[in-house]
């Protein structure tokens, strides 16, 4: 069986991948997907900790798993709102490339 | 009503009227009448208070062990002076009703007059030096406001500033003098000065004369400024830019006499041995300043073309007489001359006002002429004022001037001869003025179309002319003059003084007639006198340029560089710099923010985990 370290390593890689995507990619849909990737990385960490933190009776710690459910729910809501914003953005600006969206420049 | 209450009303009624004028009735057109009513009321109160003695006081500001009081003192000096102030004041108010009829800012003018009446009353009734000083500054303020009444004219605005600033120079010395006298006598109240000064004399007999002399000299500085004595006389002729009634009231009869009044009040309060006082250096300086002013001003008056300027220099010269009398420890004579001079000089100024009014604001005497026929009332009243000023026997000026000459001869013969020369010059320049402006033929269409002025203007002239004639006689002077002694021998023509003064009058008048009768332009031209001994020019080119402008440069440096550049500008510039610095962070680049955010999170983790 894989160790906690291996899980965390994969999770860290996933998170870094997501962050790199958020920072580097210009298409806002891709940025959005990378955000989801980062959330998944966090979920993976939580599940891994839950699995390896048995509470005396040999069962995995339930609080980690509960947190994951919360994250998935919130992520679903976030996707709904985020996609709606992107659609509205596209309608008003005809673009979803971040380098074109700099009207808040000081 | 009690005396004190009356005195308080006398003091504060004009202030209330000035405030009401400015705050409530400015636009209704009633302001002039309110001011005239207040002047009439104060005149009535002054008559009620005449000859009464008493005092009232309240503490205005008190700190530990020291209290500044506002108080009124009633004695023969102050009540007599109030008759002069309110009497001339009332007549000038009435005259102004007609003179300022078409002025757009009548309300402001009469507010200024009422404010002046308040301030002047304060000086006269004052019971201590602090109050005198406060009202001293207030008359300066109201004089400033009234000289600059036509502030749209640059010359008027400049003259107002000049008067104010010149007075400031004198007032600085005055303040030092007040503080020194306070240090010597330990009191600021006039009433306690004699005791204080006697105690000081007993404690420091050696240094007493010297210290007192210095203190009195500094006090005299205030009178030099306010009474326009040499070398601070330059503001008074320029002050003629103000409306003529103002010149009559403030710059001839009352405010400029305040210096003489104050000096005499101090002498009375100190109540020293006259021999000792006369021997002090300060008394000598005062007497000589007065004499020199009288002489210089009379010389300058001989070459002026502006009717009001001639009268202004004549005022200077007469004030010089009064100051000289005070310096010669003959303050009684000075105050008596102040009293008579107030009437006939106000008369002359109001007469010149009537002339200026009739000639459509022409002030050059060489453009007048023949006015005696065109304006008989003004002309004859002016003639009476002229006779009184040159001290023709029988007029009020004769009695008072003779007293001063007597005093000069008695104490300091050199000053007597200076005064005699002034007594010769006075008839000369006044004859010149009268002959050129009132006799002969009109030289300009303004004078040609001149008409006699209305009753509002001629009545004050007539009343003042009567007073100018009779004010010197004991039946009137004994009652209302602000002096304790009256001339004993009325028509006593034997002796040096009457002979000299009569000869001076005759010579001056004859010379004036001989030189100026029938002339169309000035046959003599003495640039030195015309240019007023170049004193004004010296002040402009030297004092103003080097002192005032040098000081202005320093102030400008502080203002522009330190305050504006470093404090105000520096603060705004540093805020702007920081703003510019942080502006760059706000790039508008989404991923930039995300990157910075990620970096921040990493930093937080790093610090929380590894420290």
Task: Describe the secondary-structure layout.
The complex is a heterodimer of chains A (106) and B (611).
Chain A lengths: L3 H21 L3 H25 L9 H32 L13
Helix pairs in contact in A: 1-2, 2-3
Chain B lengths: L2 H21 L7 H19 L4 E10 L2 E9 L1 H24 L6 H20 L3 H19 L6 H32 L7 H11 L4 H19 L8 H4 L5 H10 L4 H13 L3 H6 L1 H21 L5 H21 L3 H28 L12 H4 L1 H14 L6 H16 L1 H26 L6 H4 L6 H16 L3 H7 L15 H21 L10 H4 L4 H49 L6 H21 L1
Antiparallel strand pairs in B: 1-2
Helix pairs in contact in B: 1-2, 1-4, 2-3, 2-4, 3-4, 3-10, 3-15, 3-21, 4-5, 5-6, 6-8, 8-11, 8-13, 10-15, 11-14, 11-15, 13-14, 13-19, 14-15, 14-18, 14-19, 15-17, 15-18, 15-21, 17-19, 17-21, 18-19, 19-23
Overview of this protein structure:
The complex is a heterodimer of chains A (106) and B (611). Chain A has 106 residues and is mostly helical. Chain A is built from 3 helices and no strands. Chain A has helices at 4-24, 28-52, 62-93. Chain A is elongated, with a radius of gyration of 18 Å. Chain A starts with a helix and ends in a 13-residue tail after the last helix. By secondary structure, chain B is mainly alpha-helical. Chain B is built from 26 helices and 2 strands. In chain B, strands 1-2 form a two-stranded antiparallel ribbon. Chain B is globular. Chains A and B meet through helix 1 of A and helix 26 of B.
